């Protein structure tokens, strides 16, 4: 069984492709899906999807590139996360590539998410782009290792991966790993132990080869698994088994 540990089913639903995507996921032996939150106002839509399907879970978070018209509070996140279908906090993090939200506001929001996660003892889903030094520093300062989590859609180097794993975080690989020029990601995937990785699609974004440039969907997580299996010179069955074990260890 495969698990798509990070996708955005609310966006797939808006495109009118949700039921088709869920059928394809089942046919591809994708047993569970985690639909990550990126905007607090979208959370009810995401939760409603999970409530209709026994194999879907969600998270609560404000993506670092998403703006907000009020002061983000710990209590706001905690209140939304008070549901058994909510298994994590995020996605949160820092994105210094896009300039939609200033860095200090992003850092403040990240600290708020970490405080909420520690209050309710749920793991964090971290987004990082051009910001790994600050991510590692803030995880240490805020003692986020107490709840752990995952650096999703990982594109950083091996040193960052090592630091994250030492802080009780998993490394999650997306369809980017199938891109021919993603040499750094491939190197990290080869080195990350089987006990510390997850696989994801980030659907509807970042479709893997052979669907690069098209809309992504959870069924395509199998291409991520196949690529990692090849890099690690092991079987797809092993990658599926270990990533599934890691998913349940982290979120449940």
If strands are numbered along the chain, what order do they take across the biggest sheet? 1-2-3-4-5-6-7-8
Q: Please state the overall shape, judged from the principal axes of the Cα atoms.
A: globular
User: Radius of gyration, rounded?
Assistant: 17 Å
Q: How many structural domains does the protein architecture include? A: 1
Q: Quickly count the helices.
A: 10
Name of the CATH first level: Alpha Beta
From the N-terminal CA to the C-terminal CA, the straight-line distance is 17 Å
Structural category is: alpha/beta
**Could you report the average pLDDT, rounded to the nearest whole number?**
97
Strand content range? 15-25%
CATH architecture: Alpha-Beta Barrel
Characterize the largest beta sheet: strand count, sense, and whether it forms a barrel: 8 strands, parallel
Low-confidence stretches: none
Q: What's the CATH H-level superfamily name?
A: Metal-dependent hydrolases
CATH topology: TIM Barrel
- Helix percent reads 40-55%
Number of strands: 8
Question: Helix and strand succession?
Answer: EHHEHEHEHEHEHEHEHH
Describe the structure.
By secondary structure, this protein is α/β, with parallel strands linked by helices. The chain has a single domain (about 1-250), classed as TIM Barrel (Alpha-Beta Barrel). Helices cover about 40% and strands about 15% of the residues. The protein contains 10 helices and 8 strands. It has helices at about 10-15, 20-25, 45-50, 75-80, 105-120, 130-140, 160-165, 185-190, 220-230, 235-250; strands at about 1-5, 30-35, 55-60, 85-95, 125-130, 150, 170-175, 195-200. Strands 1-2-3-4-5-6-7-8 form an 8-stranded parallel beta sheet. Helix 4 packs across helix 5 (about 105-120) and helix 9 (about 220-230) crosses helix 10 (about 235-250). It is globular. The model has no long low-confidence stretch (mean pLDDT about 95).
């Amino acid at each position: 069984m495969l698990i798509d540990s990070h996708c955005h089913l609310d966006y797939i639903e808006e495109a009118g492709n949700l039921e088709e995507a869920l059928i394809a996921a089942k046919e591809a032996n994708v047993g569970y899906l985690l639909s990550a939150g990126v905007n607090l106002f979208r959370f009810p839509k995401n939760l409603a999807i999970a409530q209709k399907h026994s194999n879907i879970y969600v998270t609560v978070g404000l993506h670092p590139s998403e703006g907000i018209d009020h002061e983000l509070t710990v209590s706001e996140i905690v209140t939304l996360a008070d549901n058994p279908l909510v298994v994590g906090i995020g996605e949160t993090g820092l994105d210094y590539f896009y300039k939609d939200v200033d860095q200090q506001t992003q850092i403040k929001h990240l600290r708020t998410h970490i405080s909420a996660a520690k209050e309710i003892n749920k793991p964090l889903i971290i987004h990082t782009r051009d910001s790994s030094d600050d991510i590692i520093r803030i995880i240490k300062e805020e003692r986020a290792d107490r709840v752990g989590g995952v650096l999703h859609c990982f594109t950083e180097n091996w040193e960052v991966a090592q630091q994250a794993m030492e802080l009780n975080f998993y490394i999650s690989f997306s369809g980017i790993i199938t891109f021919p020029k993603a040499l750094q990601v491939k190197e990290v995937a080869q080195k990350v132990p089987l006990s510390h990785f997850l696989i994801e699609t980030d659907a509807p974004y970042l479709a893997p080869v052979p669907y690069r440039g098209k809309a992504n969907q959870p069924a395509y997580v199998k291409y991520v698994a196949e690529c990692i299996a090849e890099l690690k010179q092991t079987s797809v069955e092993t990658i599926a088994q270990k990533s599934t074990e890691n998913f349940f260890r982290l979120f449940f």
